[in-house]
Amino acid sequence: MSRTLLRRATVTTAALGALLVTAPVTAQADATGFTNAPVRVTVTVQGPDGLLFQKKIFTWGHDVTTATGGTHKCDGTNGAAHTSKVPTPTAALDHAAKRNGFTWDGTWYASFDDFSVDTIKKVNGGGSAYWSIEVNGVPTPVGGCQFEIENGDQVSFVWTSF
């Protein structure tokens, strides 16, 4: 009887050892395919009278809800910009607002499959200004729910008059 138990323990230990040896490889393969992994970025909001907000946050693409625009995806798949979900500037603004007690609002434009950021921290773009979205000091060429941001990026919403 003890010989059978010893044999089972040996087989079980060998099986668990094999599982543990292969587990990190499997986990790495899964992690590399996960494009919507959280990234840490600095979100800055620059209003007409100066800095309104600046902080490092973790963010990822997710559904966003605004009072004016309703709830819509904001994960990089908007407008078929990416085939899989990715972190985006507007999603980063949404996370920053929720975690730091300020509000923002935006209009949803179905034709662009994206939000237009209208108000941040009660500062409205209005008829003569808008909120420009910049990543690493460069205006994004597409909407804030379509542009992919990466770890370490500087994401800025800049009140811009025209």
Word description of this protein:
With 162 residues, this protein is an alpha+beta fold. The chain has helices at residues 2-32, 89-100, and strands at residues 39-47, 50-59, 62-66, 70-74, 104-109, 114-120, 123-124, 129-135, 138-139, 154-161. A hairpin with a 3-residue loop joins strand 3 and strand 4 (70-74). The longest helix has 31 residues, at 2-32. The chain is globular, with a radius of gyration of 23 Å. Residues 4-33 have low confidence and may be disordered.
Core attributes:
162 residues, 38% strand, 27% helix, 5-stranded mixed beta sheet, alpha+beta, 3-stranded antiparallel beta sheet, 2 helices, globular
Annotate the secondary structure layout.
Blueprint: H1 2-32, E1 39-47, E2 50-59, E3 62-66, E4 70-74, H2 89-100, E5 104-109, E6 114-120, E7 123-124, E8 129-135, E9 138-139, E10 154-161
Parallel strand pairs: 1-10
Antiparallel strand pairs: 1-2, 3-4, 5-6, 6-7, 8-9, 8-10
- Computed Rg: 23 Å
Mean pLDDT metric: 84
Strand content: 35-45%
Based on helices, strands and strand pairing, what is the structural class?
A: alpha+beta
Principal-axes geometry comes out as globular
Q: What is the number of E strands? A: 10
Q: Strand count, sense and closure of the main sheet? A: 5 strands, mixed
- Listing every helix as H and every strand as E from the N terminus to the C terminus, the arrangement reads HEEEEHEEEEEE
Q: Give the termini distance in whole angstroms.
A: 87 Å
